[in-house]
Design brief:
Distance between the termini: 18 Å
Radius of gyration: 22 Å
Strand content: over 45%
Oligomer: single chain
Largest sheet: 6 strands, antiparallel
Shape: elongated
Number of strands: 15
Length: 188
């Protein structure tokens, strides 16, 4: 049974059953000493996650990225973010052909005072290009009328390469964004 990088083994030794819980790395190293032929598959299974937020109300002009000013959960060397930036970098540090990340976004958007009442939208952008399948569209009835939006997408990064991810204003006008939350999880 594998539990987020932990392995539970049931071992029978001298007619006594024992249970031992160890990390995937410990299991790999122990089996190598015992001359077992085990693939270092478990090294890829450590949980790698980053959560960044932008709580304060911010105005995002058309075509620009939402800024994330707080880091709730620090990333690892494969998920990098500079404080205050709207971009995170996903790195393909893997022994496989590609690294797969799940990127999730949620936040509140509205038309600012003085704006035109029309459909407004955000989208998750990969390498500067908005993914149309993640476009979050709302049509407020009036200005300063908040709506909650969310989207998620899988992003594949080839081994040895990098990709940037951001949340981009795909509207034709400036919008206000508040309580933004972006989570990136290394899935494989």
């Amino acid at each position: 049974m594998v539990l987020i990088g932990l392995i539970e083994l049931s071992v029978e030794f001298n007619s006594k059953k024992t249970r031992k819980i160890m990390s995937a790395k410990q299991y790999y190293l122990q089996t190598q000493r015992a001359d077992y032929n085990v693939c270092p598959y478990f090294y890829e299974r450590e949980v790698k996650i980053m959560e960044i937020t932008g709580i304060a109300l911010q105005t995002v002009t058309a075509g620009e990225d939402v800024a994330f000013t707080e880091t709730a959960v620090n990333g690892t060397k494969c998920i990098v973010h500079r404080q205050g930036s709207g971009i995170i970098k996903l790195r393909g540090i893997t022994n496989q052909c590609k690294a797969r990340f799940l990127v999730s976004y949620s936040g509140n958007i509205q038309i600012p005072t003085g704006g035109t009442v029309e459909a407004i939208s955000l989208a998750i952008a990969v390498d500067g290009e908005p993914l149309q399948s993640t476009r979050m569209i709302v049509t407020p009835a009036a200005v300063e009328n908040f709506f909650n939006v969310s989207a998620q997408a899988y992003v594949d990064v080839p081994c040895g390469c990098c990709s940037t991810v951001a949340v981009q204003n795909t509207s034709t006008q400036a919008i206000e964004v508040q309580n933004s939350n972006l989570i990136a999880v290394r899935e494989a």
